[in-house]
């Protein structure tokens, strides 16, 4: 069982000691409710570091008013059981991460525009801020994130570059259920009927990819193919972008693209993406 550290100063001391021994620290930041996707990040972290740190923190600053902060799934005991390969779990309280008077936030100006940034105003400021704080506390050599949160990964990668944060950011492929649904802690909210319909997001993306593989290059046509599969209650966005997230009309051979979708199935907001 991993050591659990709640105090940021104690977490930093743990990291300092590991660094002083010349150990390489791999880090997987999470909001808990761990699933197989998180476990794949932890397994890769185990391979890349001498020491493996996990954080579990449901970060209030990345949730907007009316979002699911209060009901976000929390299961520390279950999470620690799934994370048995971890050396340390950093599980801070909100007041330790955001002491009274906190007023400094990180904004990645361009990449936070559009997609989830537009639908969830302030979300990526909350994400960038907490991830930078976690990096400063945990001081990892390498940090691992899932590609399911494609825009989040782009925002974090850019922040690390722009602010000279000495950490290697690694993105790993999305893990999927047998019917293609991207693994997500929020899948736990889905009713049986919603769960079936939720698979339509990945079905749409795969249908677009198949059409792309067959030679279609027009963005509008590819988006139509995906849209036709969607059995959702509200589409937040369905877009085709190049992999640096610039919008595109035509998918060129020399310009790899990604299709991104966000939609509500029942009351649950799901996101997914697929490279073409
Ligand atoms: O992807 C998540 O779980 C969160 O956005 C992260 C990166 C842990 C920041 O709170």
Structure description:
By secondary structure, the chain is of the alpha/beta class. A six-stranded parallel β-sheet has the order 1-4-3-2-5-6, with helices on both faces. The protein has helices at residues 8-20, 36-48, 76-82, 94-97, 115-119, 123-138, 150-162, 192-213, 219-229; strands at 3-5, 25-30, 51-56, 88-90, 142-146, 168-172, 234-242, 257-265, 268-275. It is built from nine helices and nine strands. The protein starts with a strand and ends with a strand. The structure holds pantoate. Residues 29-31, 59, 62, 127, 130-131, 149, 152 line the site of pantoate.
List the helices and strands and how they pair.
Blueprint lengths: L2 E3 L2 H13 L4 E6 L5 H13 L2 E6 L19 H7 L5 E3 L3 H4 L17 H5 L3 H16 L3 E5 L3 H13 L5 E5 L19 H22 L5 H11 L4 E9 L14 E9 L2 E8 L1
Helix pairs in contact: 6-7, 8-9
Bound molecules: pantoate (PAF).
Key features of this structure:
alpha/beta; 20% strand; binds pantoate; 276 residues; 6-stranded parallel beta sheet; 9 strands; globular; single chain
Our Rg estimate from Cα atoms comes to: 19 Å
Q: Uncertain segments of ≥5 residues (pLDDT<50)?
A: none
Heteromolecules bound: pantoate
Gap between N and C termini: 40 Å
Shape: globular
Q: What integer is the average pLDDT?
A: 97
Biggest sheet record: 6 strands, parallel
Number of strands: 9
Secondary structure class reads alpha/beta
Number of helices: 9
Residue share in helices? 25-40%
Strand-and-helix sequence, N→C?
A: EHEHEHEHHHEHEHHEEE
The strand line-up of the biggest sheet is: 1-4-3-2-5-6
Please report which band the strand proportion falls in: under 5%, 5-15%, 15-25%, 25-35%, 35-45% or over 45%. Answer: 15-25%
